[in-house]
Amino acid sequence: MVSVVDKLSEILISENVSFQQWFSLVDNDIKEEDKKVVQKAWDFAKEKYGDSQRDSGQSYFHHAISVASILIQINLDYESVSAGMLHDVLDKGVCSREELNNIFGYNIAELVESIYKMENIAQLHNHNEEGAVRLGQAEQLRKMIFATTKDVRGVIIKLAEQVQNMRTLQNLCESEQRRISIETRDIYSPLANLLGIWHVKWELEDLSFRYLKPDTYKKIAKMIAERRIDREEYIENALNVISEKLDEEGIKAEVKGRPKHIYSIWKKMVRKGVGYDELFDVRAVRVMVNTVAECYAVLGIVHGLWKHIPKEFDDYIATPKNNNYQSLHTAVIGPEGKNLEIQIRTYEMHENSELGIAAHWRYKDGSSYDQGFQKKINWLRQYIESCQEDAGEDDFVDQLWSESFDDRIYVLTPKGKVLDLSAGSTVIDFAYAIHTEVGHKCFGAKVNQRIVPLNHRLENGDTVEILTKSNMTPSRDWLVSGLGYTASARTRAKIRAWFKLQDLEKSIIDGREIIERELHRFGLKKNAISVILEKSRYQNEDELLAAIGRGDFSAAQIGSRLQEEVALQQYQPEQESLPISARPSQHQKSSSDIQILGVGNLLTHMAKCCKPVPNDSIVGFITRGRGVSIHRTDCANIKNLDQEECERLIDVSWSGNRENQYPVDIKVESYDRPGLLNEISMIFVQEKLNITDISTSVDKRDRIARMSFTVEISDISNLGKILNKIGSLPNIIDVRRISG
Questions:
Q1: Which of 75, 129, 172, 471 has its CA 20 to 30 A from that of 547?
Q2: Is the alpha carbon torsion for 36, 41, 42, 46 positive or negative?
Q3: Which domains does the chain have, with CATH numbers?
Q4: Percent of the chain with pLDDT over 70
């Protein structure tokens, strides 16, 4: 079994080990004064955990010091080691954040809390089906990192804990083994990969592979074991040849075999479609030197010893990987004609490769963890591709880091849900991101359990609780940029929409009062509004009333239109009806398509206001001197008739033998593009419809095209088919019949 660091496999920690015994076993650079903090964490953890046991059967305290051991071996500082010992105290509820802060200081308390948050987020994943979880993990993994880690050490501590979890997995039931292994493979191993902590990555991969594909794991392990003696003899021979040649050239170097890991062997076999013996790097050697110049000198010596295999050379020194991984990779036909992989790097490159970002936690000039170093991990947020040494890493990890997230923050609700917001977002932005109504009714907020003002800017990992009241409404101050209440354009749009709606309702009320006053002055009935609407650019009565209320449509304009209506009623009283503008049948003389119950041979006209079409629900209105005006039953003019006028309504119906064509108005809204009008017109042509009128306009502000068509149809059933065809065209926003 692969170990995080070779030395850890030699450290056996008993349940009764003392701090001094443990500390002497673990190789570390922790100063004496910092050692006291670690010992205080040891004593505190031992007291708080007591004799409680984990599901694995290991005690919480034993688990804690195992995690701390891993952290020391991968170079973490005393604050991280202390936090590793304490990482379960918040989860178990045996200690509060405030108590940690008082005893160990802000940094350690913050690290412990970040691990607790990560654990809560990880539990949101559904692990029931192996194949179904991976796509969902990418988003959660990204959010987990950015929402919970103001300090990247928190992620490393969590990785160390997961290593220990995997090492003690054997005592759990099979379903739990599988669940935790999937979580490890899909969340924590990619995290270790991205941080460049290869030893952790390899162990997590191998352990999860062991439980997810036990038969394959055992088969490869058996092949490695069976060939171990031959392989070790072969490697020893190659090492001697290289070492002797380097000594001759005066190059001081460390030359040793490079272990291969079961999971990476299996992935290469699958990816390349080859057997175990055909892999170049099953037999692998690593050469470490002091300088970059010596790296290239060693490369020349190796290629002089054995024939280089074409296309198996990579210079990651001249062109480092995106996480600054550096090394020379080459493959040669080595002794006995067998393939041999060789890596060449400096000692510094090796340390960075093995420990990744953790390699930077060093004690310099007597100081501890360098807070400024946190700025040096910006590359983590700019990852584009996998950091794995093996080319062709699974696309899963590549896709996770294919963009930069510097302009995003990730914050949490009290229930642990992660919200993705733009950098600089405020409490108000958070409220509207939850729900528009929550934003409208927001009057306060708590961030990390502390009351904050509404213009408080949020940071990664904040937990935000919105306080609401049912009678609260947005404030216009929220839209004033200088006051800093909002950072999101989407939030401001929602606030503006709310005020626009309130203003609209008030404008409609004001407009109705104005027009009713004018109608009364001219002695006209309410249905005269339809005349003004028909001659205006507004689509419905509410739009007209709102325009009047805002003053867009002046009282003088209203009076002018109403005077026209008075004149029409005096001299052309029946103008509200329009004779059928229809095409007669080519086969027989035109006749009325309307049947009036109990009456025959009455003159009928189609009302201009609502333009009925066969199969519309209709009603007749007896006019003075011009027969019966046919309206749709949902016509606004019919609905607004007074009691006396309602007595002039009669039942009518469409006849079974209809021969005429009827005008229908169709309105289309679309994002403007070339050829749109032609495509719509072609639909009418294909349906053999006559177009009698077209009007178009384009709003220069939003490039929305608005088109009105009048076409003649014989039956309402044809209309639905036509509207569907137009609606299916690219860029169409809305298509509908215009009615009165």
A1: 471
A2: positive
A3: 6-212 (1.10.3210.10), 224-360 (3.30.460.10), 408-487 (3.10.20.30), 498-571 (no CATH), 577-581+591-654 (no CATH), 662-737 (3.30.70.260)
A4: 74
